Amino acid sequence: MNNKVCRQRREYRATIPGADKATYRKKYDKAMSGRDPKAAIAAKCLDCMHWQRMRIRECPIVCCPLWPYRPFVGNGEAA
Length: 79
Known about the structure:
Blueprint (H helix, E strand, L loop, with lengths): L2 H12 L6 H12 L4 H12 L4 H5 L22
Helix pairs in contact: 2-3
């Protein structure tokens, strides 16, 4: 991976907001490792919902290909 990509990822990671940013940064790091598809889906959903976990449950973007796999929903609500 080249230096430009590494720099962009570091800069983006530094912008993750909120009280849970340490947890969300770990989730982002796990997703970017390329070894955990569930972490990648969770990180993308968090990113899309402005890093507000509760908004994922209320996601109105039902045409998103990740919608059926949304994390943090529980009890089979996603599908």
